[in-house]
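Closing statement on the zinc ion sub-project.
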Amino acid sequence: MKNIETEKKIVSLMIKYYCKIKHKRKMSDLCTICNELIEYSLKKLSLCRYGDNKPQCNKCSIHCYSADKRIQIKDVMKTVGPIMLIFHPIKTLRHFFK
Ligand SMILES: [Zn+2]
């Protein structure tokens, strides 16, 4: 099951955790960089031409993220991934870490 809405929720949550860990912010009060990254990611997901059939982003041929944003999101995945797998071991998450 792949669902864009679920992915949007997970991506936002991961970036919030990331900001909390890396930038020592509250999850309700993210820094500008992370707020921008969330907005950017949600916009990209909304525009994803595959919709609910979207492949894993790292296997997608389109690579819609710009280079700098890709570096940021990779760092988010690397930092928060292990935590997310412990606290949110839901099926959809595997999608990100295969
Ligand atoms: Zn931040």
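The chain has four helices and no strands. With this model delivered, the sub-project is considered complete and its resources will be redirected to Aim 3.
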